[in-house]
Amino acid sequence: MSNPRPLQEERYDMSGARMALTLCVTKAREGSEVDLDALQHMFQQLGFESTVKRDPTAQQFQEELEKFQQTLDTWADPVSCAFVVLMAHGEEGVLKGEDGQMVKLEGLFEILNNKNCKALRAKPKVYIIQACRGEHRDLGETVGEDQLMAIAGDSPQTIPTYTDTLHIYSTVEGYIAYRHDQEGSYFIQTLTDVFTNRKGPILELLTEVTRRMAEAELIQEGKARKVNPEIQSTLRKRLYLQ
């Protein structure tokens, strides 16, 4: 039996511009400003050119992403990577704008795909979505005998249209997301801490985010709840932010 060969480690070139857009509904979402501060600090530390828009309507979610796409495609220097953070109330597959109207995530994701955004063709596109994806609440399951620690609170080749994309959801399909009035969302706070203070390929960083969130116990309505993010990746290479 032959020895398996180690995977060749190919990285995305991160020497160009790093761009970020955050669209956040703050109304009736206490703690949002704390999350926005944490994200701004993270983007600053990681060398991103960052833009924030508060309280977009459903239509403005679409319009702001289209504006972002035009900015990327007309940027003077090569663009290496783009982050898009979407924060709002939501249900599976949709976000609720400040006006109470719904916008489909699928339509938003299409704006920056390899077909529609030349600047990001074959470049990593990272979406961070802090929103509910349903009404279910996870009470957790016991693991073995031990109690889990409780924490309160560039070649001419063609590529597919939807590669080089990473979707990071604050919770799994069908479940609610949690946010603290003063401390922000556990998801955003954990993710920004790990991305700012740890080094490694982004999927390994996200494993650490998931581990921390899985160990935490969040108290809601006097009951302990569990929550974990969900990651969907079509990245073709390793993505290092540091």
* Order of strands in the sheet with most strands: 2-1-3-7-8-11
Quaternary form: single chain
Largest sheet: 6 strands, mixed
Which descriptor suits the 3D outline? globular
User: What fraction, in percent, of the residue positions are helical?
Assistant: 25-40%
Portion in strands: 15-25%
| CA-atom Rg in angstroms | 18 Å
Number of helices: 5
The average pLDDT is 85
Derived from helix and strand composition plus strand pairing, the structural class reads: alpha/beta
Distance between the termini: 38 Å
β-strand number: 11
Taking pLDDT < 50 over at least 5 consecutive residues as the criterion, the unreliable ranges are 138-155
Order of helices and strands: EHEHEEEEHEEHHEEE
Architecture overview:
- Helix content is 26%, strand content 22%.
- It is of the alpha/beta class and 242 residues long.
- The longest helix has 16 residues, at 58-73.
- The model is unreliable at 138-155 (pLDDT under 50).
Features of the shown structure:
alpha/beta; six-stranded mixed beta sheet; globular; 5 helices; 242 residues
